[in-house]
Amino acid sequence: MIYAYKDFIPVVHESSFIHPQACVTGNVVIGKNVYVGPGAAIRGDWGAIIIEDGCNVQENCTIHMFPGVTVLLKEAAHIGHGAVIHGATIGRNCLVGMNAVIMDNVTLDDECIVGALSFIKAGETFAARSLVVGNPAKKIKEVSDEMIAWKTEGTALYQVLPANMHNHWRVCEPLRELPPELPKQDVLYETWNDVKNNS
């Protein structure tokens, strides 16, 4: 669902995939190889939203702002399921965890990781590679090389997902019973706990 608002029509690069059940409105610019999941609301009515190349905005996220503000997701920002970004700047290769809330005039410098369910108060700034958790959120340590490598690998899956969706996604009727053989599901990625336990 792509909607114009006043004279603003969203700009979406053809390589990106916007799920038909997402809603993108107004002054929104979406770069290359961006994935936007179902239920996401990206509303550029009172200000601009810029989503740079290789970002993902997962299911049920909300991106909005107060009047006159630009929201910026820099290259390879990774916005987990249900997160809210309101009037903030999210740095390059950051991870915002599931159901986190990032309030107005927050700046996350590059390669920060924000824990799931964290709440970052308006006006906060976190330096590059901060690991930020809690309500209210606080920096608890630096993001290690190992952690950012794990994050980058996960984001890479989302960067190829738009092409996979364009090539393989389709509306279908459900099966009424399990077939004799199901396709094999590839294991493409390990959770952080698996990475730590295997290293």
Automatic annotation (TrEMBL):
CDD domains: LbH_paaY_like. The keyword rRNA-binding does not apply. Pfam families: Hexapep. It comes from the Bacteria. SUPFAM superfamilies: Trimeric LpxA-like enzymes. Keywords: Transferase. GO terms for molecular function: transferase activity. InterPro entries: Hexapep (IPR001451), Transf_Hexapept/Carb_Anhydrase (IPR050484), Trimer_LpxA-like_sf (IPR011004). The keyword Transferase applies. This is Transferase hexapeptide repeat family protein. It comes from Panacibacter microcysteis.
